[in-house]
Structures are given as structure tokens and as C-alpha cells.
Amino acid sequence: MTEQEIQNILSAQREYFTSGATLPYEARRRALDALKDALLRWEAEINAALKADLGKSATESYMCEMGLTISEITWMQKHLRGLMAEKWAPTPLAQFAARSFRTPVPYGSVLIMSPWNYPILLTLDPLVDALAAGNVAVVKPSAYAPATSAVLQSLLAECFPPEHVFVVTGGRAENQALLRQRFDKIFFTGGSAVGREVLRHAAENLTPVTLELGGKSPCIVDATAKLPLAARRIVFGKFLNCGQTCVAPDYILCERSIASALVEAIKAEIVRQFGERPLKNEAYGKIINEKHFKRLSGLIAPAKVAHGGQSDEAALRIAPTVLTGVTWDDAVMGEEIFGPLLPVLTYDTLDEAIATVEAHPHPLALYLFSESKAAQKRVLDRCRFGGGCINDVVIHLATSAMPFGGVGESGMGGYHGKVGFETFSHTRSIVDKKTWMDMPIRYQPYSDFRRKLLRMFVK
């Protein structure tokens, strides 16, 4: 798509937004209804596309993509009137008589740039929030998931006219062309390198940006943890989508005294969940492309493989792999893994584990397995991270009742539910001043009496 064609679409979207067509409650509700209906009708096509791009099973596709998107739509449908409503605010006595209130208004034209690892969820979830807030949107899915991008383009074209929602497909050239345009809001999910590029372009137009990035999310396991259950939940979250999940546990920080027991429990869980030959398991996903397959293969130090390590380059599959004896000098600890490799590091004291986490960039997620309330409080008080779980992994993002987002190098801003609506809205503060009286304090000429009144009211 040429830059001129993109500019034409943006011009049409601005005109449509200016007309007020997206503002009424009824219009926003119709948009949400149409998207939910389309998702249900297109389920077979979505499943086939996710299978082609990422090897996802139909169950995983619904659990982690369609189901969560539908859940976000349902939440918005239920709460939309309340989110749109004016919110009363107290009026200072010095401004008597007046009514003060806050009211949300849409930004206008928004750009949503999504990644390849959850191409349905991470495209449509922010779009749901943007539509509920009354915006028009340009959606740019990742070129690394071509089958899903094609389905999204057809599905959204069926739901919305291009002046309301438009999908731009393509790669780097299209990304750059979009970032050269002036949007009212940009929402980006992806890696930190591209996130910085998005932020640089947005700064030229002073465009507000939400960045959902990633990082090396730690999983701390102490000696009080229930190891069989911890292993089961860690294996689920780590190897979901073949490890290509931004909030997957990137590495384990395990108390040294239980490290061997935890590794054995994890190995048993891998066999339990994926079988003796996971590369032959049809429900186990694949690496997105050859480039990432080779990157991940290069991170595996054969001498440190405690389990797994097998791969099938033709099928772009790497078995769930556990690495022990790992230090921060190993290649696997030099970057976000984003694949089915699980390094296990050890610590002697909880303070040592906390210091390790805090010595590195703030992660998108942190997980703690511990039965100690004191340890739980200490980790939550001392560690800075986007969000997380105690005695589980990844599930904190599967609710519209709580915001999801990063901090520092793992992102800025959040979304889901109420916070998602607010992310795509500007909240205006309004004072409705009455005309049946006028307090004279603020007007010149100033007098001793007026100064006394001023000090009485403004303090």
C-alpha cells in the first residue's frame, strides 16, 4: 500500500470522525456487537490461520485468543454506558456557584500496531477498547503472521467501513509509512527496539503513545512452594504458544536447596503435558519463522540441557527445553528468550533474588511461588514490574477487571476494561459556572477585605 493511499484513508477517517458518527452510545455498541458476531462466524478461518502461522490447536486458539477477545467485548458491552457517563467532581468554595465534572472524549484517529505471537488477541483487544471509546482506527498486524493478517483484513472489512476501521498489511515499508502520518494516539505491542522507533516518530507530532513491550520476566520459587503444583503451572505458562508469550516466565530463580527437586518436577510435567515426544504432539505449537528458530537454537548450550533440546528445523519446532547451571554470562540470559527454553538459576537468600531482579531492566511480569506471606509481601514491596501472579503464571492478563501493561523498559501505559477505555480517551475537566451570582473576590481593584476573603476560601 502506498503512502498516498494511507493518507487518503486517514483523511476519510478524520472526516468520518468529525461527523460525530462514532460518538453516540448506540454507534459504539453496534461496533462492539458487529465485532463479536464476526468473531463467532469466522472461528473456523481464525483457527486455520493460527494453525498455519503458529501451529496453534483450536483449543489454545480459543483459550488464548478468541475467548479472551470475546470476554473483553462482553465486558465493554456491559459497562459502556457507565464508562461514557459524566463523573461528578467537588467544586471548591471559591468557585461557588458551579458544577464540576469530568467527561471522556475519544482521541480521534488511532493507530494500533500488533505483533505476531498472539495476532488475534493483541490486535483486537486494543481495537475493542478504541471502538468503545469512540475512535476511528487504522490497524497494522504483523507481516510475520500472514495467514492471520489476511483473515483480520477480511473480517474487519466485513464489520466496518474503511473510514471507521481499516487494516494495513505489509512489512517494514508500511510500518514506516504509517509512523510518518499524524495520528491522535498510537498503541504499539512488540519488541523494545521497534518501540523506541515508534516513540521517536510519535514525539515529532507530540502524539500520546501506549507501548506494550516485554523483557526477561523472572519466576522466583522458594523452599516453601508446593513444587508439583508450581512445576505444573510453570510448564503451562512457559511453553504455551511454544514459549512465544510476552509474559511467559523467562527464567526461574530457585532457592538452591530445592533446585534439583524443582527441575525433576518440571521434567515430569513436560512429559505429562506434552508427551515423551513433544515434537510429534499436534497440539504443541511451532516457532514463527526460520530466523527465530535459528536464534533460539543458538541460545541452547548442549552441556547445560537438563531436558529436551531436540528440534525439527523443517517443522520449525523446538522441544520444551530446561537448562541448568546457567549464569548471567550465558547467551540465553542476554536477551528475552521468547521461545521454549527455560533456564534455571539459583539463589541462597530472598534478598539475593530481589537484588538480582532489581539489577536488571524492569520486566513485564514477575511470578513468585511461595507459601510465605512475608516473602510474598517482601517481593511485591521491593520489585518493580508490570504485573504478575503469586503461585501461578500468565493468568493476570486474562481479565478485563485489571489493567495490563509494563513499566520502564517493558512498556508504558496499560489497557483492558476500564483502563483500556481510558487509554483511548482524553478526560476533560469541566466547570459549569452559574450566572445567577458572581463572587467578586478575584476581580480588581483588590482590597484588604477581598484579600481576607481570598485567604478564607483558598487554603
What would you say this structure looks like, in words?
This protein is of the alpha/beta class and 459 residues long. The protein is built from 15 helices and 20 strands. It has a 7-stranded mixed sheet with strand order 10-13-14-9-8-15-16. Strands 5-4-3-6-7-18 form a 6-stranded mixed sheet, with helices on both faces. Strand 1 and strand 2 (98-106) form a beta hairpin.
Strand order of the largest sheet: 10-13-14-9-8-15-16
- Would you tell me the overall average pLDDT? 96
Low-confidence residue ranges: none
| Gross geometry | globular
The number of helical runs is 15
State the gist of this model.
Helices cover 42% and strands 18% of the residues.
How would the blueprint of this fold be written?
Elements: H1 3-18, H2 25-41, H3 43-54, H4 58-84, E1 87-89, E2 98-106, E3 109-113, H5 121-132, E4 136-140, H6 146-159, E5 165-167, H7 172-179, E6 185-189, H8 192-204, E7 209-212, E8 218-221, H9 227-239, E9 251-255, H10 259-274, H11 290-297, E10 305-307, E11 311-312, E12 317-318, E13 321-323, E14 341-347, H12 350-358, E15 365-369, H13 373-382, E16 387-390, E17 404-405, E18 411-412, E19 414-415, H14 417-423, E20 425-433, H15 448-457
